[in-house]
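Many introductory courses stop at the sequence. We go one step further.
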Amino acid sequence: MHKQRLKKLYQNPINKSGESIFGAYILKSLEKGQIKPNQIESVRKILSKEIKKFGKIWIRIFSTMIRTSKPAEVRMGKGKGSLDYWACLIRSGQVLFEISNINITLAFYLLKKASNKLPVLTKIRKLGS
């Protein structure tokens, strides 16, 4: 797979509402970037540890892009580097995580904690008043 540039891939934010389909509270990105699977997993652990059986979590992103790299001090040529890690390319305005069936204060607390684990700026929204 060819390496895609974030600049060309996602120049404009999502024009559609990009709102929740499942949950009552969402974590939405404010900028474009890439998220690694270990970052997604750390957010999932934070959310599932507190929510337990009472709430529901939806992860709306998935790592599908392969990133490669060559070792240090390797000469030019000799093909593409080996697989380094997987990544999920996200655009601004994309919904990352959704939760429901929990208290509003707990929801905002958990999503704030989860947003600290991500490399992009995020916004927490409550849907439906």
